[in-house]
Write a structure and sequence with these properties.
172 residues, alpha+beta, 4-stranded mixed sheet, 5 helices, 30% helix, 33% strand, elongated
Length: 172
Amino acid sequence: MARKSDSRISATETELKDTLVSLNRVAKVTKGGRTFSFAAIVVVGDENGTVGHGLGKARDVSEAIAKAVDDAKKSLVKVPVYKGTIPHEQKGKYDAGRVLIKPASEGTGVIAGGAMRAVLEAAGVHNVLAKSMGSSNPHNVVKATIDALLKLRSPLTIARQRNISLEKVFNG
């Protein structure tokens, strides 16, 4: 996934909340039997437009989650959240994972499943309609959702690009 370098941000660790999206037990067969380890996918966000995802692998569950949280803090990005929803409809894609997110009116809630819900809630989106149309693999769904969020343009950015006032963007 190509990320814009200007959208990366840093945040203090106290305000970030982490959510475990997926925990997978994997086995390596050796001469002495099976060796189990764990792979964890975690989403972190400040619920105010900042979100990141990470993957951690270790022999112990808690260590895998800790590694995933550290990895997620390195990939934080800022996304436009306008009045608790997103500014416009957007599609996102990563490998076979394809997602569609649409703005929703106040009181709708987060209509999304599994991995998408974790990303949208961590980003601080409270009202959104979302659909996962491709792969249900949590890795790809998380990355496709973040891709869709990165493609969003804020109303202020659109007003500047068109050289019009912010009211004219909405009343247009």
